[in-house]
Amino acid sequence: MVESYVVRRVKSGIPGFDELIEGGFPENTTILVTGSTGTGKTTFGAQFIYKGAEEYGEPGVFVTLEERAKDLRREMLSFGWDFRKYEEQGLIAIVDGVSSSVGLPSEEKFALEDRFNIDNFLRYIYRVVKAINAKRLVIDSVPSIAFRLKEETQIREVLLKLNTILLEMGVTTILTTEAPDPSAGRISRYGIEEYIARGVVILDLQERNIELKRYLLIRKMRETKHSMRKYPFEITNSGIVVYPSGEIY
């Protein structure tokens, strides 16, 4: 008799999204969230971390490589998300990866060193994950890691190493990256990010009736039955909301 295999799921915290992926992300999986500028990638990742703490009591780490931690906190307050509250409770850790890179001292509890080294970076993230026993991790973003490397050609090696370490950490991870032109089939900056991830979610902006509308496509999700159609979503006052039933515009 063959034993049934049950995939443990991690809730995204994004209304309407989990019903598209059988109840949530497969546990301990690396998910790539990709899209052009302004599609909501950082918000998607931040919502995953914040709602994990607020609704499910799951600790999470947000590594910000594109903006300072204090700027991220301020922006997220517009959705009613008080990151500081859960940081003080030990449920969220924000790693400031920006201040030192631009030559500014960081006031944060968790901050990367001024000289970027991928091995040191991975070791540091590992320590922070273990320090709060994190179940969720967001790294925003892959191009910002590549930008800190001496040679962009290193990115493949770095991503493979990153993915291996993430799997060892036992966390469910969201990596964000840029999609230069999703309509032309280019869904990531370097063309390899989607291959190291076990799930790929594309956020897109399309013009409809002289207005830009937001759409989401689940390009890949291992161990999950999912549709390959585009679903509309909005960034509301309380965060991202996906509409599985279809067209709302």
TrEMBL record:
SUPFAM superfamilies: P-loop containing nucleoside triphosphate hydrolases
PANTHER family on file: UPF0273 PROTEIN TM_0370
Domain of life: Archaea
Biological source species: Thermococcus barophilus (strain DSM 11836 / MP)
Keywords linked to the UniProt accession: ATP-binding, Nucleotide-binding
Domain KaiC: start-end pairs: 8-249
Name recorded for this polypeptide: KaiC domain-containing protein
InterPro entries: KaiC-like_dom, KaiC_dom, P-loop_NTPase
Gene Ontology terms, MF aspect: ATP binding
